[in-house]
Design brief:
With 421 residues, this protein is α+β, with helices and mostly antiparallel strands. It has one domain: Glycosyltransferase. Helix content is 48%, strand content 7%. The chain is globular. The relative contact order is 0.10.
Length: 421
């Protein structure tokens, strides 16, 4: 995950906080990242074959080679996270430049959408902003629609509302689901539940329910949180599995760090919008608190978490920053009815220098000898018999396995209670 996620999580950390004077204060770091994004977003189009650049598509000859020049102007789920982060940053820092950026980004996209829609309607599918014209997955719509809902509170444009209603209808009525109504996906394997999809649906549904006053959105979001907890929560480790294979009734073995972050953010977003008197609010609050206690056990001494959360390699800033979002805000501490959790203290910045250079320097950019000096134990591979075990019925791999590959399977417990439909 790139900068948009980091910006959101750093910005939400500041909720209810005061301004600090030192150079490495949260406000300074957030502004550095946000300002860099604003400065490097061009709000232009470019022809990928000729290299020509355009400020607008009005009067432009139709060509599928015309693309948004900046990655921040593209329709991708990471930019939905970015939009939420920018509007949150503007509210906390009382600086309208950041919310204006999010508003300008969506206006830029929707103002030029007709140009690309004509190309798409003509039969060309590899066109910019294709996910807006044809929603094919939760990744296509959920995160960007959540960001658009935040922007809609400023700009009540009818085209925004039309799209938001279309997304709501897609998620509730058209997205593939298990027989019990749990959101799933058909790729790369049919009828598979991914933890990521809780974030790609619930934050939008929670916002949509509050904005429209239609409780069906909130009720559907609550059912998804309960169902995802049923299918992928592992009580033995206190973590979530990344996937559940419905056809095999099994979980994937990996407790992927980032997926645990997606789950936590989704549950937090739902509680932010849920009425205080909702009958299931207390149950949801306890689920989130249970997860926070669970993943706090796996925090590394550097202040970060590992990509496979139970392994001793592959430190993950993204996983860490999602937990900053949960720990750092006094408002969220009150929501959990808990005193400030000490686990967030060392992990806000991790090791010194990691967030330097405008947020661009990472653990991977350190020289190898520096990394060995700072992380002498973490860089040592675990014993061979602890490396991603595979079923005995399968032949051994000749190539080294990676954390993203599917390995062993764990049978789901049949006595685990299922949430009501």
């Amino acid at each position: 995950m790139n900068w948009p996620s980091r910006l959101l999580l750093l910005a939400l950390l500041l909720g209810g906080a005061t301004t600090f004077a030192q150079d490495n204060s949260p406000e300074t770091l957030v502004r550095k990242v946000a300002d860099h994004i604003i400065q490097t977003t061009s709000f232009r189009f470019t022809n990928t074959k000729t290299g020509e650049k355009y400020e607008s598509t009005k009067g432009l000859a139709s060509s599928p080679d015309v693309k948004a020049e900046s990655k921040f102007n593209k329709w991708m789920y990471v930019n939905g996270v970015l939009a939420v982060g920018m509007t949150q940053t503007a509210a906390v820092l009382k600086d309208a430049r950041y919310s204006d950026y999010a508003r300008k980004n969506y206006d830029f996209i929707f103002s030029n959408l007709d140009y690309f829609k004509k190309i798409y309607d003509g039969g060309t599918t590899s066109v910019e902003y294709r996910p807006v014209m044809k929603i094919g997955s939760l990744d296509d719509c959920g995160s960007m629609a959540a960001g658009l809902l935040d922007v809609y509170s400023f700009d009540k444009k009818p085209e925004y509302l039309d799209y938001l209603r279309r997304v709501g209808d897609y998620i509730i009525s058209k997205q593939v689901k298990f027989p019990d109504g749990t959101l799933a996906r058909n790729g790369p394997r049919k009828m598979t539940l991914w933890a990521d999809d809780l974030y790609m649906s619930v934050p939008f549904l929670a916002r949509m329910g509050k904005m429209t006053g239609d409780n069906s959105y909130l009720d559907f979001a609550v059912r998804q949180v309960l169902s995802f907890n049923h299918y992928i929560y592992d009580s033995a480790s206190g973590l979530y599995f990344h996937v559940f294979y419905n056809d095999e009734n099994t979980n994937g073995v990996a407790h992927w760090g980032r997926c645990n972050g997606w789950i936590a953010l989704a549950q937090s977003a739902l509680l932010d919008q849920l009425p205080a008197n909702h009958p299931q609010r207390e149950q949801l609050r306890k689920m989130l608190l249970r997860q926070i206690i669970g993943f706090s056990r796996y925090q590394d001494t550097s202040g970060m978490w590992h990509q496979p959360a139970r392994q001793t390699r592959l430190l993950s800033r993204v996983f860490r920053n999602r937990h900053v979002h949960l720990y750092g805000s006094p408002r969220r501490q009150q929501r959990l009815d808990q005193p400030p959790l000490p686990v967030h203290r060392p992990q806000w910045l991790g090791r010194p220098g990691e967030e330097g250079n405008g947020g661009r320097r990472t653990h991977r950019h350190l020289h190898r000898h520096q990394r060995r000096r700072e992380y002498p134990i973490l860089l040592q591979p675990p014993p061979r018999n602890q490396r991603y075990p595979r079923p005995r019925s399968l032949p051994p791999r000749r190539h080294r396995t990676g954390p993203r590959q599917r390995q062993d399977l764990v049978q789901i417990r049949p006595d685990q209670p299922h949430p009501p439909a």
